[in-house]
Amino acid sequence: xxxxxxxxxxxxxxxxxxxxxxxxxxxxxxxxxxxxxxxxxxxxxxxxxxxxxxxxxxxxxxxxxxxxxxxxxxxxxxxxxxxxxxxxxxxxxxxxxxxxxxxxxxxxxxxxxxxxxxxxxxxxxxxxxxxxxxxxxxxxxxxxxxxxxxxxxxxxxxxxxxxxxxxxxxxxxxxxxxxxxxxxxxxxxxxxxxxxxxxxxxxxxxxxxxxxxxxxxxxxxxxxxxxxxxxxxxxxxxxxxxxxxxxxxxxxxxxxxxxxxxxxxxxxxxxxxxxxxxxxxxxxxxxxxxxxxxxxxxxxxxxxxxxxxxxxxxxxxxxxxxxxxxxxxxxxxxxxxxxxxxxxxxxxxxxxxxxxxxxxxxxxxxxxxxxxxxxxxxxxxxxxxxxxxxxxxxxxxxxxxxxxxxxxxxxxxxxx
Length: 416
Ligand SMILES: [Ca+2]
Ligand SMILES: [Ca+2]
Ligand SMILES: [Ca+2]
Ligand SMILES: [Ca+2]
Description:
Helices cover 2% and strands 46% of the residues. The chain has helices at 14-19, 84-87, and strands at 2-3, 5-10, 44-46, 54-59, 62-65, 89-92, 95-100, 108-112, 119-123, 135-140, 143-149, 155-160, 167-171, 183-188, 191-197, 203-208, 216-219, 231-236, 239-246, 250-256, 263-267, 279-284, 287-293, 299-304, 311-315, 327-332, 335-340, 346-350, 355-359, 361-362, 365-366, 369-375, 378-385, 389-395, 399-404. It starts with a strand and ends in a 12-residue tail after the last strand.
């Protein structure tokens, strides 16, 4: 077991936050700039300064308010659970883009350059109080892609260059008000790949180059009206890997070169119709790691080198049919971290040879791992704690810190 030193940061005042964001002389603070940089992979809704839940980014590991989007209301947003926390925002063209509500427009696409004056609604895609609920934000070919519902076409693929007039529907993939519900957006090569349902083939693998004409289905993997439900799309060794379902072999690991003829099953890990349900794919140490269930060992850590014979169980961490549930695989500082354990809230680390449970205590309470992500040389863990509430824990390689942004048991993160 690794044992981390710990440090608790409590009662961070706004003044301390400003001091911690560079520009202590105030020379670059014109317009209320907080010095936010693209270190932060995510804009999340946090409450630490009696503003209610408002958009924050991480600056030197510290949550930092971008601006109050809903100054008169209780909050401007909620954080997604799991990977959705990361895909509801993106850094694009020097600014943060994220979903939020000002209380009048519903959940829409917002942008912030880190100043109050530079924080604004991009476009009220679903006009009026209803929200278009933008999600799955991804940058591809210098454009911002996401899914949204304009109230007429259903939940479909959108693209934006950051301007109101340049925020447009790419294609009404499922024609009419019904939704194709694009999900698992990923950049592969110079194109955008994702799952969508055109109403005929079910949810299948799609590709887009930003126009209606260049948006089409790659392959009807599960032939007919039932979808293959592609998910966890991940690029490894110049190929696209993902979980897909077909009626003969269940939900298994597939690989694609982006074309119909180059899309095939990699391995039927749980034989025949049974699902191995590969998920949480991550590239680490020249291999693709993921969780899967072969029907014998439960949900455990697997890896592949891209060949069927090179696809194998890494370790039966919870021996036999019991599962260790390795979720949210995250590479940090030369190791592979994941959430797992019988309570599914432990932190584990794999160093390429051995899996160890990380024992991280703060004031005698072991941190509860809800989700994790790596950014700017730190590992961030979303924790749920009776002492601290829902908060971020920061690991910088030496210490574990609870950033008790909403001091005490109150929640600093808005998941409700
Ligand atoms: Ca609206
Ligand atoms: Ca539609
Ligand atoms: Ca199908
Ligand atoms: Ca199978």
